[in-house]
Design goal:
Blueprint lengths: L5 H11 L4 H8 L3 H10 L5 H11 L3 H5 L19 E5 L14 E5 L9 E8 L13 E8 L2 E5 L2 E5 L4 E5 L4 E5 L5 E8 L3
Antiparallel strand pairs: 1-2, 2-3, 3-9, 4-7, 4-9, 5-6, 5-8
Helix pairs in contact: 1-3, 2-4
């Protein structure tokens, strides 16, 4: 089965539904320039623009991230999540990843599940990962597997340690990052309504 990049999938869906980049920009609130960079340059944006683009196209977020889908339960065996990296975020544009900068790696736990509304990930957050606050429809659940996490939610700032969890509405501007300049590993479940 041929694999397609995120940008290729967005372009294919746009073509299928006869949606121009400008139309998608208007529907999603994501600039046509950013959509162009995703489709043509392989740029992987943060999660918020991806959710907005999926909404603008009228598809689930998983449709943009997946290569194929399976009916019934999807089992992700120990170690499989590490090999299912879907995208990386949290690095300033132009950052040279060969210099040891890794940002945030999102590894899917149910990538092949057909018709899902939740997106579960194991997220590895490097000490140098930086991202802007984002807001999008839906809800998120985070469980800290290892390390100390900072969560900025609206004007509040919280620290979560290994074993702590949080559930919040994603419509409020938020971001997560390392609280102590050490790597953090979390389980993140993102729910986007139909």
């Amino acid at each position: 089965m041929e694999k397609h990049s995120l940008g290729e999938r967005i372009a294919e869906i746009r073509k299928t539904y006869s949606i121009s980049r400008d139309d998608l920009a208007e529907r999603s609130g994501v600039s046509a320039a950013l959509i162009s960079k995703i489709e043509e340059d392989g740029l992987i944006p943060d999660l918020a623009p991806l959710i907005k683009i999926s909404r603008g196209l009228g598809v689930r977020l998983g449709t943009l991230l997946d290569d194929h889908e399976k009916l019934g339960p999807v089992i992700c065996r120990a170690g499989d999540a590490a090999s299912s990296s879907r995208f990386k975020t949290g690095l300033p544009e132009g950052t040279d990843v060969s210099q040891g900068h890794h940002g945030m790696s999102f590894n899917a736990l149910a990538a092949d599940k057909n018709g899902r509304h939740m997106e579960p990930f194991i997220v590895s957050i490097e000490a140098d990962a930086k991202q802007e606050k984002s807001a999008h429809e839906g809800e998120e659940f985070i469980y800290v597997l290892d390390g100390t996490l900072s969560l900025e939610y609206g004007v509040d700032k919280n620290t979560l340690n290994t074993g702590d969890s949080v559930y919040y509405d994603s419509i409020v501007p938020h971001r997560v990052y390392s609280a102590d300049n050490k790597p953090v590993k979390i389980l993140a479940v993102i729910y986007t309504p139909v």
